[in-house]
Amino acid sequence: MDEKGRRFADDEKIIKFKDPEHESEVEDNAKLEQDKRLKDKNAKKLKRLLKKQKRKELRARKKFPDEDEIEEKLPAQDTPQEEPEEEKVPDNHPEEESAVDEKPAIEKEPIHDVEGVPDEEYEEEEEEEEELPEKRPAFGHAKQEAPSGKKKLPVKRIVVVSIIVVILFAVVFAVFNADKFSFHNISNFFKYGVFNQQSEEKFPLDIKGERVNAGNFDVIGQDICYASDTKTKLLNNYGRSLFSEQHAFINPVLTVCDKGALVYNLGGTGYQLINKEGKTFSFEAKDNLLTADYIDNGYYALVTQSSGYLSKLYVYNEKDEQIFAYSFADYYVTSVTLNSSGTKAVVAGLSALNGSEISALYVLDFTQEKPLMIQEVNNDIIYQVKYLNDKYACAVGRNASYVLNTGKDGGLQTNSYEGRSLTAFDINDDTNTYTVSLSSSGDGRNCDILSYTASGEESKSFSVDKKIINLSTYKGRVALLTGDSVMLYSKDGKAYSEKELNSDPHSVIMYTSSDVYVLCTGYIDAVSM
Questions:
Q1: The sheet that has 332-338: what strands, in order across it?
Q2: Which of 92, 224, 227, 434 could cross-link to 427 by cystine, CB 3.0-4.6 Å?
Q3: 137 pLDDT exceeds 80?
């Protein structure tokens, strides 16, 4: 190789040769840069950890603030300050640069991540932490949204509240209309209203050719029961016949209870017991019948004429066995009533003394031969007696009404009509009250409607200017029948409604708080008030 070639090879070696001082300087600068990046990263991690701690504290207070709000609340000293970059030593002083670089190389220690958390794991944890409030808020707290003027209710809560309101409305409606939602009415609705809509009989019911007295028109539960001059019939509240039983009584008289009906021939000896299924039992009394009573447990009482006495009382149990008898020597019996257990009776009798009427009220215990009590009433005729409860019995007369205390203390409460004439009355043992209509005019108009408690105290009253020919009560309401209409009132005089009738009415019976049956000439109608 010539001289020129050797020189070129030596120059190439000089170029490829690495200067040790320069290489040390580059490495130190790289370490400084790496340490700076690590410090910055650790400062950010520390900042994030502080944010996380602050967020947990705020969650405990049920809040989810924005990140800007957290940054504003962080203490100033918590944020680490970045260290200033070290100035590089000029290349023309290699000795000083080497001295400066050697000192930090000895003192400097490796910087670790904050709390020893690896970068990748911390970054994943931070991502989950940032997504958690959006995807699934803490239990019991709603996701915080931007404040608005109106607070939005969850759809689920609205639905629940709506269902509760509907249920409460239905309960209140059912309570105030419980009589219309009885098992009997519901059964009749499905039996005759839904599955048998083509019923042959419906209201108004034609009864032309039959003679029905006002006293022979009543209800068993909510079913119509009436006795005409030829038969006894039971109709449900859809007008469908449940049973019809023929009889041959000249003067039929009807008395009913929840068990069924008793029909007897006034002045004759025949009588019938008919249950609600239409099964009929026919009997003959020992003498001509004067009056009778029938109660829910199947016991019944018959009062007949008697040879040697003015009247005689017979009491029978549900097996038609005689359990008691009593003869009246001084009074003709006009009415009889049994208590709910069939162990006692109150009997009203009529006699005369010196041309004036004298009535008497007997209290009889079926375990004793003599009466427990006899209360005489002068100058009056008792039309009907009836137990209001097991202690008190009501008696309605021509000039006054009476309440008899049948207990040991006894006593008779008299409520005079004060010169007014009785036009109608109703004794309601379901509410333990009775109501009378008293007219202050000669033609029967201008009637006062008075209601009394079981003890005989006047509870409520009001007046109407029409002639009342019949009335019926149900709980706190009263239906008044005039010559051409039926009116519905509360017992304290609040008017609800009035319905005109097409024919001459004779009797009215309430079977719910707003529905009545009306007996008219030639037909029976159901009227909703």
A1: 332-338, 344-353, 356-365, 373-378
A2: 434
A3: no
d(CA 326, CA 347): 11
Distance (Å, whole) CA 271 – CA 280 = 10
pLDDT of residue 138: 47
Burial letters for 191-218: b for 16+ Cβ neighbours within 10 Å, e otherwise?
ebeeeeeeeeeebbbebeeeebbeebbb
Region of 414 (left: φ > 0; alpha: ψ -120 to 50; beta: rest) is beta
Mean pLDDT over residues 421-440, rounded? 95
Q: Which two tokens stand for residue 466?
A: 């029409």
Task: Answer yes or no: is pLDDT of 336 > 80.
Answer: yes
Nearest residue to 413 (alpha-carbon basis) of 390, 431, 430, 397: 397
Which of residues 125 and 313 earns the better pLDDT score?
313
d(CA 99, CA 203): 123
Cα 179 to Cα 181: distance, rounded to the nearest angstrom: 6
Pairing of strands 477-481, 470-474: antiparallel
Q: Distance between CA atoms of 428 and 306, rounded to whole angstroms?
A: 32
- SS3 letters across 33-77: HHHHHHHHHHHHHHHHHHHHHHHHHHHHCCCCCCHHHHHHHCCHH
pTM score, whole prediction: 0.64
Q: What is the DSSP letter of 129?
A: H
Of 493 and 97, more confident: 493
H helices of 108-263, in order, are 119-135, 155-176, 183-188
The three-class DSSP label of residue 251 is coil
Alpha-carbon distances, residue 387 vs 157, 301, 334, 341, 375 (angstroms): 55, 14, 15, 11, 16
- What's the pLDDT tens digit per position in 182-226? 555 555 554 545 444 444 557 899 998 899 999 999 999 899 999
Whole-number CA gyration radius for the chain: 51
Give the residue, 80 or 226, on which the prediction is more confident: 226
Q: What is the DSSP letter of 454?
A: T
- Dihedral (C-alpha) 416, 442, 493, 481: value to the nearest 10 degrees? 110
Length of the chain: 529
Nearest to 412 by CA among 377, 437, 365, 371: 377
Most confident region among 105-114, 198-207, 287-296 by mean pLDDT: 287-296
pLDDT at 108: 43
Cβ-contact 395, 337 below 8 angstroms: no
